From TrEMBL:
GO terms for biological process: cellular respiration; nitrate assimilation. This is Assimilatory nitrate reductase catalytic subunit. Its cofactor is [4Fe-4S] cluster; Mo-bis(molybdopterin guanine dinucleotide). The keyword Membrane does not apply. Keywords: 4Fe-4S, Iron, Iron-sulfur, Metal-binding, Molybdenum, Nitrate assimilation, Oxidoreductase. InterPro entries: Asp_de-COase-like_dom_sf, BFD-like_2Fe2S-bd_dom, BFD-like_2Fe2S-bd_dom_sf, CT_Nitrate-R-NapA-like, MoPterin_dinucl-bd_dom, Mopterin_OxRdtase, Mopterin_OxRdtase_4Fe-4S_dom, MopterinOxRdtase_cofactor_BS. Transmembrane segments: none annotated.
């Protein structure tokens, strides 16, 4: 069958990479970067380059929601029903709830992964038809502090810079972001700029020594939550050293005098004590920022996910205003969005406090404009519930019906105990979702199957305000429908019941987009000069692009007229305040969360690709080695991490890149992969069982980045390790079934590994308990891993809590280990795992493996941790290669790329390769000294 390529856009981070999707009619067979897309010029990261694997028919059969499903009551298994019945049920229930309790008894929680057209109809349904502003999005957890910071200082939610500015900057100031892992393709551009212009200086502000920080010329390893103090201290020095631009301040800003009085108290010595950084580093950072010809700042969740998120954003933007570093090539404050269409959601007003085209809900004139555009009598005045408020209101019984689309709040929201109480208490929960196995799905009364990437048609907007087309390569599987079509189907039914027919005449995404485009006329994001034909002809375009313009606008405020009433930017005079939840004697650790290089959000999509677990495969809490020594724990020791809201049991791992009394857990680990029961029998959820619901009073973005926790050794002496090769067409299903055993243990995790062998998938289950597990539970695990057949080798001693089972491929000297379970004594799991993954011959020692000795019967070498996912190259292989190749870092890197091919695929591993090639864990002192000179 002939193949076809469809030009589309990646559904992962906010870089907005173009992709070419290869398909053969009904099946996506490959993906590559679009060399003509200006966001990536053909590059993709590990996640983007494996997109086709998430869309394979075998994955879809196991992972996708394929038909509408209804639960008759909570706890029951869902049963299929037809689309008409499903939408009638949803419309009738919503109509009843609104009639009994008013429109504010309904809440819509949607997603930055929806397309702009999906977002638009959700917003119009809630605010225009139902009459409630209770529509918010997981972008509230992502970028709302940046929205508030831009509006407070520059007057509009409009990032003024673009990716091209990286090529013109002399100083990159990266704060609270790790683009080497979170935005890898953008980081490739930073590496290219540095190679072309060795004089480019990079300053990175981060409590962790991430790959980005390690490669920077200057790393400000500040204490968590002290960003505002840092920025105020930099401004203090800029004023003292006459590094500000008084003419720019006088001619284009207001409010500087008040802020100058506030930062007068932020002396270098005070900032050094508060932030935990040397005075000389503070001085170097302030000088580089202020005196470089062009300074571009990049930031993400480290600033946004905070109870002071708006203040952090505004303080950083204030540094640009004080030094005139804005409105020209290479200079400006540039927030990086975490999701593929967080910008598009902001554009259509898909937040509880916004209206379409960046209009403010609190502005009566704006409400009147939108009502006229939509043809409704009015838009409700009362502010809607934001994300944290919405689930708290549902937990309190004020919101009776929740409609959730394309997101997984039972994994991603903070304070999971409250979120799950909300999902349990709500009278009716609708989940509109592509994937069947998310944690939220277990609470839904009605599940509606939605189309996913590769099947959708519409637009998205990336971090640099660039609108790109998303195109369908294949039809949706089963009965899945497009998100916009589901909403329109519901809205038409509701319109008839409410006496407001005709508000949703849309028949395709373009007709929705055309209405959205009209709402932007005369606004800061005016796109009335853009249509789909222009994107098809000229490629993705940046806004604003008003009627009559021939191309979009790359850089804003080049005329130094800002989007305020008087055209002047505003300094924000907000003093530093500590995080909402400071560590104390009872909870002495500051917990931080963040991304892994190869994973995405709650892993509903990336979790279907085994090779994406090879770089960082299992959940763990990272701690500084000195803290581990003080706690008396070693690498892999199980610890109980507890906050005021919940607890989690995890293995501890040493991480010298952390500061003392800090902890780090990747944000991705929810109870789809991690679980168990606490000592009191409470089920353990994922990482966000720990996180704080405290939020910024201005942006309402929660403080996911900072929670106070205690950490102590968890006494679970009985352990289990099981590892098995499984065929791809059943691996996801078996993993989901293994998850059902989690509650039988004090700790349990289940993840896939690829083992670097093509279609091969290894499923790893770890568990621990205070007492040996029930034999029936162990039997169930053996059954799922095909360790119960007549060919399996088995040993059991229930009295001692010992149980072992093996499955072999072949016989005699060439037999290879295909699966094993070790319960009780798990000391042999390391070398047995290496035998299985490396497909080493057992060599006639099959039965001796049942003895579970601490030493292997045949020579086994651990291959190490995968560094290069594209070419399956481990750190052990890299170190062995480097041992024989002296020279400088760049020379050794080239040797690695030529000899092992690592770093020649997507390039996401290049920062780590450079660190390994340098022979050090960080930047050499000479580089730091040069930056500070």
């Amino acid at each position: 069958m002939s193949t076809h390529e469809t030009r589309s856009t990646c559904p992962y981070c906010g870089v907005g990479c173009g992709v070419l999707v290869e398909s053969d009619g009904q099946r996506i067979t490959g993906v590559r970067g679009d060399p003509e897309h200006p966001a990536n010029f053909g590059r993709l990261c590990t996640k983007g380059s494996t997109l086709h694997l998430t869309a394979s028919p075998r994955v879809a059969t196991q992972a996708r929601l394929l038909v509408p499903m209804r639960r008759e009551h909570r706890g029951a298994a869902p049963a299929p029903l037809g689309w008409d019945d499903a939408l009638d049920l949803a419309a009738d229930t919503m109509h009843r709830v609104v009639g009994d309790h008013g429109p504010d008894a309904v809440g819509f929680y949607v997603s930055g992964q929806l397309l702009t057209e999906d977002y638009y109809v959700f917003n119009k349904l809630a605010k225009g038809l139902l009459g409630t502003n209770n529509v918010d999005t997981n972008s509230r957890l992502c970028m709302s502090s940046a929205v508030a910071g831009y509006k407070r200082t520059l007057g509009a939610d409009a990032p003024p810079a673009c990716y091209e500015d990286i090529d013109h900057a002399d100083c990159l100031f990266i704060a609270g972001a790790n683009p080497a892992w979170a935005h890898p393709v953008l980081y490739r551009r930073i590496e290219d700029a540095r190679a072309r212009r060795p004089g480019l200086r990079i300053v990175c502000c981060d409590p962790r020594r991430t790959e980005t920080a390690a490669a920077a010329d200057l790393h400000l390893q500040l204490q968590p939550g002290t960003d505002v103090m840092l920025f105020h201290g930099m401004l203090h020095l800029m004023i003292r050293e006459c590094w500000t631009r008084p003419g720019f301040i006088a001619g284009h800003t207001v409010g500087f005098e008040a802020l100058a009085r506030t930062v007068a108290d932020c002396t270098p010595e005070r900032v050094s004590r508060t932030c935990g950084i040397p005075v000389e580093d503070l001085h170097a950072a302030a000088r580089l920022f202020a005196t470089s010809q062009a300074t571009l700042s990049l930031w993400c969740q480290g600033l946004n996910q905070s109870s002071s998120g708006t203040a952090k954003n505004a303080a950083l933007i204030g540094l640009h205003l004080a030094t005139g570093q804005i409105g020209r090539p290479g200079a400006g404050p540039f927030s990086l969005t975490g999701q593929p269409n967080a910008m598009g959601g902001r554009e259509v007003g898909g937040l509880a406090n916004l209206l379409p085209a960046h209009r403010d809900l609190a502005n009566p004139a704006h409400r009147a404009e939108v009502a006229a555009l939509w043809g409704v009598p009015s838009v409700p005045e009362r502010p809607g519930r934001t994300a944290v408020e919405m689930f708290q209101a549902a937990a309190d019984g004020e919101i009776r019906m929740l409609w959730i689309a394309c997101t997984n709040p039972a994994q991603s929201m903070p304070d999971q105990a409250t979120v799950r109480r909300a999902l349990e208490r709500a009278e009716f929960v609708v989940l509109q979702e592509a994937f069947a196995g998310t944690a939220t799905g277990r609470y839904a009364d009605l599940l509606l199957p939605a189309s996913a990437w590769g099947e959708k048609d519409g637009t998205v907007t990336n971090s640099e305000r660039r609108i790109s087309r998303v195109r369908a390569a294949v039809p949706p599987p089963g009965q899945a429908r497009h998100d916009w079509a589901i909403v329109v189907g519901l809205a038409r039914r509701l319109g008839g019941r409410l006496g407001r027919p005709g508000l949703f005449p849309f028949e395709d995404p373009e007709s929705i987009w055309n209405e959205h485009r009209e709402t932007t006329r005369g606004r800061d994001l005016d796109i009335t000069g853009l249509d789909w034909a222009m994107i098809d002809r000229a490629g993705p375009q940046q806004w604003p692009l008003p009627e009559g313009a021939t191309a979009g606008t790359a850089r804003l405020y080049q005329d130094l007229v800002f989007a305020t009433g008087d055209g002047r930017a505003r300094f924000d005079d907000t003093a530093w305040r500590p995080p909402a939840e400071a560590p104390d004697a009872a909870r002495p650790f500051a917990l931080n969360t963040g991304r892994l290089r190869d994973q995405w959000h709650g892993m509903s999509r990336t979790g279907a690709v085994a090779r994406l677990f090879d770089h960082a495969g299992e959940p763990a809490v990272q701690l500084h080695p000195q803290d581990m020594e003080r706690l008396g724990i070693g690498d892999g020791t199980l610890v109980r991490v507890a906050s005021a809201r919940g607890a989690l049991v995890l293995p501890a791992r040493p991480a010298p890149e952390l500061g003392a009394s800090q902890a780090f857990i990747p944000m991705h680990w929810g109870d789809e992969f991690l679980g168990g029961r606490d000592a009191d029998g409470t089920p353990l959820a994922g990482v966000n069982a720990l996180s704080s619901p405290a939020f910024c009073p201005d942006s309402k973005q929660p403080e996911l980045k900072h929670s106070a926790v205690s950490i102590e050794r968890c006494e679970l002496p009985w352990g289990l390790v099981a590892l098995a090769w499984l065929p791809e067409e059943r691996a996801l299903t078996i993993r989901q079934a293994l998850r059902e055993t989690f509650d039988d243990f004090g700790f349990a995790s289940c993840v896939p590994f690829s083992g670097g062998a093509g279609e091969r998938i290894d499923v790893l289950l770890r568990a621990a308990a205070a007492e040996p597990a029930d034999q029936a539970v162990l039997g169930r695990i053996e059954q799922l891993l095909e360790l119960d057949g007549p060919a399996a080798l088995r040993y059991a001693d229930p009295r001692r809590g010992q149980r072992r089972a093996l499955r072999l491929d072949g016989a005699g000297e060439t037999a290879r280990l295909e699966a094993f379970l070790l319960a009780g004594d798990t000391r042999a799991s390391g070398w047995m795992g290496s035998m299985l993954r490396e497909r080493l011959a057992v060599g006639g020692h099959a039965r001796s493996l049942l003895a579970a000795h601490a030493e292997p019967p045949v020579p086994v070498q651990d291959r190490g941790r995968t560094v290069c996912t594209c070419h399956d190259v481990s750190d052990r292989a890299i170190r062995a290669h480097l041992d024989g190749h002296p020279g400088g870092t760049e020379e050794r890197l080239r040797s690695l790329q030529q000899g092992l091919r690592c770093g020649t695929g997507c390039g996401a591993c290049v920062p780590e390769l450079k660190r390994l090639a340098s022979g050090a864990d960080g930047v050499p002192e000479s580089a730091r000294a040069q930056a500070c000179a």
